[in-house]
Fold this protein.
Amino acid sequence: MRYILKAILLIYLIQFSNLLSAQTYKKIDRVVIDAGHGGKDPGTVGKKSKEKDIALKLALKVGNYIEQNLPDVKVIYTRKTDVFVELYKRAKIANKEKADVFISIHCNATTSPNAVGTETWIIGATKGARNLAIAQKENAAILYEADHEKRYDNFDPNSPESYIIFELFQSAYREQSENLATLVQKQFSTRLHRVDRGVKEAGFLVLVNTTMPSILVEAGFLSNPAEEKYLMSEKGQNEIASGIYRAFKEYKHQMEQDDMQAQMEAVKRDSILAAEKKAKANVEAVAADNNQELIFGVQFMTSKKVFTNGSAELKGMKDVWRYQDKGYNKYVSGRFKSIDEANTYAKKVRANGFSDAFVVAFIDGKRISKRKAIKMMNK
Ligand SMILES: [Zn+2]
């Protein structure tokens, strides 16, 4: 039994190392960093700053952290300068690049100067006036696009009715998006001690067409003077960007580990199944092969019966095969190219309880006399 277990383990290790070298497990190595707004669309405007400028600085910093620390990851930016990019194009870029993750970066605003903190959004139903207001504010970016009625199927970002459609929307990436969003909020709240407004969902046009886990980060309120100051500062921007970077890194690690684990389990399961199947199969009958190869084995048993691999009668003999002769099955163990090896092995087989075991020679799947075999070898 230990032999079989060892074999299973070996197969498993070989397959697993092949798996690793082929890197068939899912890698999270393409990320789109989307700086909200830009160009003619300033986004939210604070007393001293514009959302588009802070979003761009944050996006470039996040991308830079990833590029510096995770060299296997390709960072794709939807914009790297102060230019206007249509919402639909942002998703299109991510889809075309087959990104694994889409991170859209924004800043918040509200009428109250006291509102404070960060929230990370995923696509979903828009529930409640507060959530609707945020989605409306972000989706209003399409109003800067000349042909937005046609492009977005007459979607009116300001009309609450427009958002009913999102209630029907089921994202295939909801779980992963939520996971990533949670990691971002965790970074902000535990490492940066920002006010945690949580992970939320609403109908964001920029997220609706992405074909990968996607989040929208509201990094803080420009309508809050203290928070605006923090968001404008180099220190604040570095902290926020490193928080998003760390969350992405953790997400990447989790996803890759999960996938590798699942694949390892699958390989293990397959190996065990294959071994079990083989163990239940009959001892293989020798087949004629055309390579004219001379082989030696040790014949140790004769029986009318066909035994299965690993059956008790074989007493744990390895690499067993059989040939038929006058209605009997003759059981042979081992395949050797040299008669000396076969002789050495025959001693072991005899010690294992098959005291009559002897060396046999085969060519092209047919038994030949030992004398003929030796003659052939000496040619
Ligand atoms: Zn925005």
The chain has two domains: 25-260, 284-378. The two ends are 42 Å apart (CA to CA). The mean pLDDT is 90. The pocket of zinc ion is lined by residues 36-37, 43, 51, 106, 138 (CB under 6 Å).
